Amino acid sequence: TYKGFMTCGPRDFDGTGGVVALTRWIEKMESVIDNSGCLANQRVKYAMSSFIGKDLTWWNTQVQARGQDAANAMAWDDFKALLTTEFCPRNKIEKLEGEFWNHSMVGADHARYTDRFHELAKFVPHLVTHEEKRVT
Q1: pTM for this structure?
Q2: Between the CA atoms of 53, 72, 49 and 89, what dihedral angle is there, to the nearest 10 degrees?
């Protein structure tokens, strides 16, 4: 139910903050969706209720172009791809790709290096070799 979904504390999203903010919002939203038992056909409808600001305006134009039923029936992966296209400019993703390629450990701060590596790997997954494909 929507009440159950809201009880799980979905985070608002305002369309700012670029790749990092969107990725964190999606992660939190997927956790809320999972914990609330949200059905596949409710995901987009419930998730978009957390939009505020410019992303709400953007979503309203999507609804106007597609129709309410079609917009709400969109597959979750298609919805995420649409959000990424709109709110993660290519130049910002390229900047993160460069940071990933040049990521190095400074001093002995292994924890900070590892944390940032994992964070960057989420933002540019196409650059990461999956563990099962690594040569041992």
Answers
A1: 0.74
A2: -40
